[in-house]
């Protein structure tokens, strides 16, 4: 029986080297691979190109890698919660490629499906389209976008089994699924790891064929970027 489990993040990230291109799942701080990011900090790898919806916050998520000057280039769609990111971008220390959110997701999904490129209307007529091939379909202009090429994809799921099958929960079911199988090696960390066969096949979001290594994560903080609460009086 297939068993893709490894003991921890250290074993899961064996082979990660400086200069690599990494995909990191999550939406905001929801569903980010916290254990994998912590291991990247410990490894001290540099000159990374990171593909992620966001850049974390100053002291959490990818913000930890930014603090250590480990990221050379960020490919993202939203980066508004990180002061250090802003400082490095404005000073020229950090290369930044801002991409429409749907295009970012589709470039991941295209890599997952083995599709080399696709046309999209998103970004036409803006700086996003500079230097890209343009074509008209049904009277509407589109630009050519290429699938990402990454060395590792690091994702976080709610539950998984030893064969690598994954179930995501809530907002974490966003960029995580499309990054699975979109890189040479996909590492999945999960909150709960169960034996193969225990997951309901009808509930599985990503089959194990897309996952190379899986481990049960520990000590998840699950931070909230902007917590908004109301008083009891406001609710009435």
From TrEMBL:
It comes from the Bacteria. GO terms for molecular function: CoA-transferase activity. The keyword Transferase applies. Keywords: Transferase. The keyword Transferase applies. NCBIfam families: pcaI_scoA_fam. This is CoA transferase subunit A.
């Amino acid at each position: 029986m297939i068993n893709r489990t490894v003991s921890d993040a250290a074993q899961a990230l064996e082979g990660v080297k400086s200069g690599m291109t990494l995909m990191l799942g999550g939406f905001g701080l929801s569903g980010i691979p916290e254990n994998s990011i912590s291991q990247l900090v410990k490894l001290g790898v540099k000159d990374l190109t990171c593909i992620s919806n966001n850049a974390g916050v100053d002291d959490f998520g990818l913000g930890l890698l930014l603090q250590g000057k480990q990221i050379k280039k960020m490919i993202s769609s939203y980066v508004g919660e990180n002061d250090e990111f802003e400082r490095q971008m404005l000073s020229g220390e950090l290369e930044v490629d801002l991409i429409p959110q749907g295009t970012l997701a589709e470039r991941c999904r295209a890599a997952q499906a083995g599709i080399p490129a696709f046309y999209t209307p998103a970004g036409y007529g803006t700086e996003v389209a500079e230097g890209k091939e343009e074509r008209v379909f049904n009277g509407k202009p589109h630009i050519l976008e290429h699938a990402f090429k990454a060395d590792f994809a690091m994702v976080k799921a709610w539950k998984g089994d030893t064969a690598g099958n994954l179930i995501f929960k809530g907002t974490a079911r966003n960029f995580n699924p499309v990054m699975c199988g979109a890189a040479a090696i996909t590492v999945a960390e999960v909150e709960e790891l169960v034996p193969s066969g225990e997951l309901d096949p009808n509930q599985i979001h990503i089959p194990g064929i897309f996952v190379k290594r899986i481990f049960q994560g520990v000590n998840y903080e699950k931070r909230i970027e902007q917590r908004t609460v109301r008083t009891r009086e406001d609710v009435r």
